[in-house]
UniProtKB/TrEMBL annotation:
Its EC number is 2.7.11.1. Its main location: membrane. Residues 277-313 form the EGF-like domain. Residues 20-141 form the Bulb-type lectin domain. Belongs to the protein kinase superfamily. Ser/Thr protein kinase family. Coiled coil: none annotated. It is an enzyme of class 2 (transferase). It is a single-pass type I membrane protein. This is Receptor-like serine/threonine-protein kinase. The keyword NAD does not apply. It catalyses: L-seryl-[protein] + ATP = O-phospho-L-seryl-[protein] + ADP + H(+); L-threonyl-[protein] + ATP = O-phospho-L-threonyl-[protein] + ADP + H(+).
Length: 785
């Protein structure tokens, strides 16, 4: 018996961090001890974010590395000593003490139970339970932080003045409440709303039975993980989140920069399901009252039909906050005696595929016709929409935060004076004549194009248009690709590029593929398409994505690539959780891999190729995190001694473009070098922040300015992503050298930039580097970035 007791005591000494089953009045939880959920999904204990000295009580996923914290008790006040404990008082209050006396955090007074305990459930909910009645006296799901787990919820309760929201951490090292919050509004129907302080920052549009109607790309067929319940009479509403895709582990997180992200665990890594906002147009009221933000490339602000800028001067400067005003007063507003005649004098302009404005009101009309008549008969009604899953919504006054989607939006009817569309008789004659002439010209041009198209089709048929023999590239039948992608299902869509969507597919032999479906607007004919295939087929390198095949059927043109398990680099770099998987050695390997791929394109392949669109989203990662350059839709091939070319059509991504290309259309190897410098430097790879959204200090320095100042002061070591800066894996010499090389690559004059062979030598040696000059900084608006 004595030996058994000795063995138990020895185990307690060796394993002081063993998991508790519950916390009660006689068994507190101390630093070094943890509390586990019954099935081991979640764990509660003391932790230090990013290896700081501050200690917090939190909940995290137990068996996942790096640790993802989903709830924090003492967000506002950290434990700074080595002795602290979480206990429960006789009245059922949880109390966190530092040392023996000082109370750091508690759940508050008011409970009456004298026998209770606290436990962690398999849902991730930390609860205090009355041992007699079994009633939950307190629970973490009713005291959320920055994360929602399945079965937790946001809510509002108007009669009792209650509201449950998510609030961001101040930073990844500081869990105290940040400036962003996520809530559901008491509107009917409700909306999800992110606030920055008290000001609206983003909204998801009104709830439409199974989805939020204002999120681009989500229509009625979307299988939503969300549910909303509103009790209009009681003045309450809840928004909850269910397990995603049948995976046990998933969560919704509000990040310090104001993004709502949904992630799920596939057993190997966290997969990003959704990240919002995802476009500059998503920012609340970007184009001002009665303005329309068009999600084109690049996004732009316009006035809604029938409206003009309130201040032409401000709009020319790119300041759209003043919005737009009516060009012509509504007939019923211009003359009060006409208020009852509004049905005859005002008309409605139909807009499709839009995110409807904010400040809607629900009207209990039974169908779209009643909704139309109801708005038309009310002079103060400025717009209406009849939405499936909602019914009739109307707007009075200004239209705020209206967005034009490319697809999958709602239909909005805007009230205008009839003259806005009809005009005078003279105008009708002019317009009619102009339209007639235009139609005639269009018919002539269409006939010419049709004849030309048929001639090409006949030529193709004469040739048999058999699949062309391209070395190393297979021809796929369309039915094979449709089967592999589930008929191009939206659930298989990986992303949207400038030349069309990309889908994941699986062939009958189990091989996974990525299918790039060229949009009709890409402008490529069959001959140009086959030339691109021939070009790409000749590019074979371990740091380039491999083309497996192609498919042509009618107007459909598809490129089939190898599937990259870890998708693109931007998914890891800009995600507050996934970026921890890229430590410095992996990041440096990615930098070198991109350089090797460029060396092949510029110098070692049979063709000399300029990529022209090198950016973080075009760097794909295989299962071992090796980089592969993708998307050669804008690539150009040079022959012989040719070293540069120019174009009137400047395409690519601002922020990554070299000055000579952005301003004059000149491109060469050195324009790719500039983009590489952005990738390495300002990047994204070292700083971990997007070039379009970076702002530092009271002077709001952009990335180039901040990088130059950092290199001038410290050699650039402090540019490394702040979450990795203190890691043992970081090599300060390598990091500083990369900053130096990046600055050399973004020199204003192309002649002053190194070529890719010199870049490789700089990356792989310790030789002294030439001193860069300060980059010339050009300002670009967010819409242009």
């Amino acid at each position: 018996m004595g030996m058994v007791l000795f063995a138990c005591l020895l185990l307690l000494i060796i394993f002081p961090t063993c998991g508790y089953a519950a916390i009660n009045t006689t068994s507190p939880l101390s630093i070094g001890q943890t509390l586990s959920s019954p099935s081991g999904f979640y764990e509660l204990g003391f932790f230090s974010p990013n290896n700081t000295r501050n200690q917090y009580v939190g909940i995290w996923f137990k068996k996942i590395v790096p640790r993802v914290v989903v709830w924090v008790a003492n967000r506002d006040t950290a434990v700074t000593s080595s002795a602290a404990s979480l206990t429960i008082s006789i009245n059922g209050s949880l109390i966190l003490r530092e040392g023996k006396q000082e109370v750091i955090w508690s759940t508050g007074e008011g409970f009456t139970s004298k026998k209770c305990h606290a436990e962690l459930l398999d849902t991730g909910n930390f609860v205090v339970i009355d041992d007699v009645s079994g009633e939950k006296l307190w629970q973490s799901f009713e005291n959320l932080g920055n994360t929602m787990l399945p079965q937790s919820s946001l809510m509002y309760d108007i009669p009792n003045g209650k509201k449950r929201v998510l609030t961001t951490w101040k930073s990844n090292s500081d869990p105290s409440p940040g400036e962003f919050s996520l809530e559901i509004t008491p509107q009917i129907p409700t909306q999800g709303l992110i606030r920055r302080g008290s000001v609206p920052y983003w909204r998801c549009g009104p709830w439409a039975k199974t989805r939020f109607s204002g999120i681009s790309g989500i229509d009625a067929s979307y299988v939503s993980p969300f549910s909303v319940v509103q009790d209009i009479g009681a003045g309450t509403g809840t928004f909850s989140y269910s397990t995603l895709r049948n995976y046990n582990l998933s969560y919704v997180k509000l990040t310090p920069d104001g993004h709502m992200k949904i992630l799920w665990d596939d057993g190997k890594t966290w997969m990003l399901h959704l990240s919002l906002p995802d476009n500059p147009c998503d920012l609340y009221g970007r184009c001002g009252p009665n303005g329309l933000c068009v999600r084109s490339n690049p996004p732009k602000c316009e006035c809604v039909k029938g409206f003009v800028p309130k201040s032409d001067e401000e709009w020319r400067k790119g300041n759209w906050t003043s919005g737009c005003v009516r060009r012509t007063l509504l007939s019923c507003q211009a003359d009060s005696s006409l208020k009852t005649k509004g049905k005859d004098t005002d008309i409605f302009y139909r807009m499709t595929d839009v995110k409807t404005p904010d400040l809607h009101q629900f009207a209990s009309f039974l169908n779209a016709e009643q909704c139309y008549q109801g708005c038309l008969g009310n002079c103060s009604c400025t717009a209406f929409a009849y939405i499936s899953g909602i019914g009739c919504l109307v707007w009075n006054g200004e239209l705020v935060d209206t967005v034009q989607f490319l697809t999958s939006g709602e239909t909005l009817f805007i009230r205008l004076a009839s003259s806005e569309l009809a005009g005078s008789s003279r105008r009708k004659v002019i317009v009619g004549t102009t339209v007639s002439l235009s139609i005639f010209v269009i018919l002539v041009v269409a006939a010419f194009l049709l004849r030309r198209y048929r001639a090409k089709q006949n030529d193709a048929r004469k040739k048999g248009f058999e699949p062309q023999d391209v070395s190393g590239v297979n021809f796929f039948e369309m039915h094979t690709i449709r089967t592999a992608t589930n008929n191009f299902s939206s659930s298989n869509k990986l992303g949207q590029g400038g030349f069309g969507p990309v889908y994941k597919g699986k062939l009958v032999d189990g091989k996974e593929i990525a299918v790039k479906r060229l949009a009709s607007s890409s402008g490529q004919g069959t001959e140009e398409f086959m030339n691109e295939i021939t070009l790409i087929s000749k590019l074979q390198h371990r740091n380039l994505v491999r083309l497996l095949g192609y498919c042509i059927e009618g107007e459909e043109k598809l490129l089939i690539y190898e599937f990259m398990v870890n998708k693109s680099l931007d998914i890891f770099i800009f995600d507050s959780s996934l970026k921890f998987e890229l430590d410095w050695p992996k990041r440096f390997n990615i930098i070198q891999g991109i350089a090797r791929g460029l060396l092949y394109l510029h110098r070692d392949s049979r063709l000399r190729v300029i990529h022209r669109d090198l950016k973080v989203s075009n760097i794909l990662l295989d299962e071992k995190m090796n980089p592969k350059i993708s998307d050669f839709g804008l690539a150009r091939m040079f022959q012989g001694t040719q070293y540069q070319d120019n174009t009137r059509r400047v395409v690519g991504t601002l922020g990554y473009m070299s000055p000579e290309y952005a301003w004059a259309g000149l491109f060469s190897e050195k324009s790719d070098i500039y983009s590489f410098g952005v990738l390495v430097l300002m990047l994204e790879i070292i700083i971990g922040k997007e070039i379009s959204s970076f702002s530092y200090g009271k002077d709001s320095k952009n990335l180039l300015s901040y990088a130059w100042d950092s290199w001038s002061e410290t050699g650039g070591v402090n540019l490394l992503d702040e979450d990795h800066a203190g890691s043992d894996s970081v090599n300060p010499v390598e990091a500083g050298r990369c900053v130096h090389i990046g600055l050399l690559c973004v020199q204003h004059q192309a002649i002053n930039r190194p070529n890719i062979k010199q870049v490789m030598s700089m990356l792989t040696s310790t030789a002294d580097l030439p001193k860069p000059t300060q980059p010339m900084l050009r300002k670009t608006s967010l819409l242009g970035s």
